[in-house]
Design goal:
The protein contains eight helices and five strands; from the N terminus they run E-E-E-H-E-E-H-H-H-H-H-H-H. By secondary structure, the protein is mainly alpha-helical. A three-stranded antiparallel β-sheet has the order 1-2-3, covered by helices on one side. A two-stranded antiparallel sheet has the order 4-5.
Length: 222
Amino acid sequence: MRKDCSFAPDAEFKVSVFVGRVRIKVVTAKFDDEVADKLFFPAWSVAESYLATVGFIRAIPYTVSMERLVEPNGKVRQFALGDRSLAARHDFSDDELERLTDAVIPSLSTSLAISDLLMTLGKLDYSPIACGRVADSIARLLAPNESRSKQWEALRTALRVDEPFVRSLSEVSKASRHGDRVEIPAAVNNQTAHRAWALLGRYLRYVLDGPLDPVRYPIIEG
């Protein structure tokens, strides 16, 4: 099959499965490290689409883990999916793991918001929806019995972010949330994920320590 992406080189993909392992063979006009990096997510998307189709037929929720790249010369490159720049958007460390876990586990809504946030890494095409849901969830958590306008106001006040910042998270997810799965440029996805990570980090800090220090947490403008 051929998959065209505005942010990646044109390529053909062939899916095969053997003993539970998914193999995506990619044919492209040239190969180098830059091409390999740009084709990683399209290849992952192809694998996910294939397994989603199989899962639909069998009613089994298969998942994809892309672990390695085999280059044309046979060299194997291992993959570890993650983005340290996202972790830099909050100020939590492993030293606070137990304290933070104690706050998260009793709140299913908070736990699900974290799961949504991690979907920005685990499911690329779902990233815009995930970021929008994170913002929606936090607003409802902060003011559960208020109108939507009051909930958004509570979010902006408590977490010290302005309206354009919050609106950017809602707007980028609007089309996808309503079934219009438009392609979002990689740069926009990246920026939105960083904003959602910062927002949830501030919310969790607010839950643990109360009102945010204005000096330590200046207003984020969008």
